[in-house]
Each structure stands twice: as C-alpha cells, then as structure tokens.
Amino acid sequence: MTNSSNIYYPINEVEKSILKSIWRVQEFNNNIQTETILPKGTVELIFNLSDKITYLNPTTNVTTNLPCCFINGINFKPLQLIKSGQQIFLGIQLNALGIKALFDIPATELNNTVVESSQVCKSLADLYHQLFAKSLFDSQVEIIKKWLYHKISTSKHFVEIQKLYGWFYSQNINILSVKEFCNNTCISDRQLRRLSSEWVGMSTEKFLLYNKYLSSLYLLHNSDLTLTQIGMEAGFYDQSHFIRDFKLYTGMKPKEYKSANSSVLGHIFR
Questions:
Q1: Across-strand partners of 253?
Q2: Who's near 92: CB < 8 A, 6+ residues apart?
Q3: CA separation, residue 80 to residues 50, 61, 140, 197, 214 (Å)
Q4: 201 — alpha (psi -120 to 50), left (phi > 0) or beta?
Q5: Is the separation of the CB atoms in 93 and 21 below 8 Å?
Q6: Domain covering 4-153 assigned CATH 2.60.120.10 in the classification
Q7: What are φ and ψ of residue 142, in 5° steps?
Q8: Are 211 and 173 in contact (CB under 8 A)?
Q9: Residue 41 — left, alpha, or beta (φ > 0 → left; ψ -120 to 50 → alpha)?
Q10: By the 8 A CB rule, do 122 and 81 touch?
Q11: Annotated domain spans of the chain
Q12: What 3-state DSSP class applies to 20?
C-alpha cells in the first residue's frame, strides 16, 4: 500500500462557517506506532477503515478500540493512538460551532471524548457506506459537501451560524479581554457566557486562553520566531504564562514540542 494524503479546504462563506477541512490519509506501518495528538481546537468526524487501532482516553485513562465511524469533540488534553498495519482515515474537520449547528447538542457534551457516530447522528452510518463505495477523494468530498449543505440548510440554527462564526472566529481574539469581546459583539457578559458554553464548549475566559495556546502551537510549528517572540505574538503576558498555559494543554513545554520536529501540526509520532 502506498502512503498518501489529500485535503480539501472550504471555498465559500457557508462552508467556512463550520468547516475547517476534509482530509484523507492512507498509510501502512510494519511496526507499532504511537501518535500523540495535541489539542487543536477542532471537532473531527472520522470514518475509519483501518486495521485495529486503540485510543487512550486522556480523561478516564481507559484504552478502547476506535469504531469505524466516530466523532471526537474539542480536546483539552493530548490523546494517544496506538496503531500498526494499514490505516485509512477520512475526516471532516469542523470548528466547535459544528457540533450544535449539525447535531443540535451543546458542544460541552463532546469535550475530551470519542463517541461512536450512531449515538449522535443516525445519518452518519449511511454516509460512511456512501463514502467507501467511492475510491476517488474528489468524489468523497462531493458526497460530504452534499451531506453538510443539507444539515446546515435544515438546521434550526441556520441564521445564527454565520453571526456566531463572526463573533468567535473572525476577529483577533488573542488581544481581547472578555469585556472587549462583549463590546465588539454588542452582547452582555451573561449572554456571551451562555453562547460560549453551548457553541464552543467552554467559558469565554477559557475560550480566549485556549486560542492563545492554539496561536502559539501554530507559531511553534510554522515560524522561526524565538519562544519569547512566540509568547508575545500569541498574546501571553510574559514567558512564564506562556510556558505554564502551553503545558496545561499539552503536558509539555513549548521547547519540547519544538524539538519533537513533527511533520504534522499538533501530532507527535514515536
């Protein structure tokens, strides 16, 4: 089996409001490999045709086999996959708004967990069979987009999605305080806290801090800035806050992630 990967990025405002990417990975490993996945601020709907892969839940510390179709909510701790043999994954990567937009459940319900898809949405089982009846990635993307557009257009939150995307993902949240966030969105602190919990799975304060961490992770992976420069660019008050908060989400210091020299953002392979 030849290793390969494909990716599709959203092309219009409707797609961008919840979709980060559609991706496919095919690879083969003769030896057992451990993959540590750091929190990335995204929700993943994953269709799995791989050989046996085990998943270590970071909250319960329980190891289980990955189902053939599952949803991984927003993570605040690293998770681990232990895999060997053939791996075929097809994924739909969403921002946090996608949970409530597509499935009408609060984002907090899927935090730090992997859930078999049928527990959340019955149509995902049918989507799984449609996708793997096709071999071309472009054909699979078209099937996913058709499903997404149907789910979005029939969602009772259809009008809210674009507005919430503008509030939570279109402004420079690294430089905002909660008060500034409220002023920019013209809503009360109480209302913002409710929306933040329901739609992005965390309090407003935690959302702002989490996005500073995500910015620093991106810069560590993609820039040649010093650690001090990265901390400042990501919005941290000082180096000690940067190191402490980065370790809070990853279990490692920024320089340890930098030295891991991973080829994929937020993934460490052993």
A1: none
A2: 19, 22, 44, 45, 46, 144, 148
A3: 16, 10, 27, 26, 19
A4: left
A5: yes
A6: yes
A7: -65, -40
A8: yes
A9: left
A10: no
A11: 4-153, 171-265
A12: strand
CA distance 164 to 195: 9
Q: Are 71 and 45 in contact (CB under 8 A)?
A: yes
- The pTM score is 0.91
Cβ count within 10 A of residue 222: 9
Rounded Cα gap, residues 224 and 240, in angstroms: 20
Residues 206/218, Cβ–Cβ less than 8 Å? no
Kind plus residue range of the DSSP H or E element containing 89: strand 79-94
> CATH class for domain 171-265?
mainly alpha
In terms of phi and psi (left: phi > 0; alpha: psi -120 to 50; beta: otherwise), the region of 127 is: alpha
- Cα distance between residue 212 and residue 206, in whole Å: 10
pLDDT tens over the chain, length 270 residues? 467 899 999 999 999 999 999 999 988 877 888 889 999 999 999 999 887 788 877 667 778 888 899 999 999 999 988 887 888 999 999 999 999 999 999 999 999 989 999 899 989 999 999 998 999 999 999 999 999 999 999 999 988 998 999 999 977 777 788 999 999 889 999 999 999 999 999 999 999 999 999 999 999 999 999 999 999 999 998 999 999 999 999 999 999 999 987 788 999 988
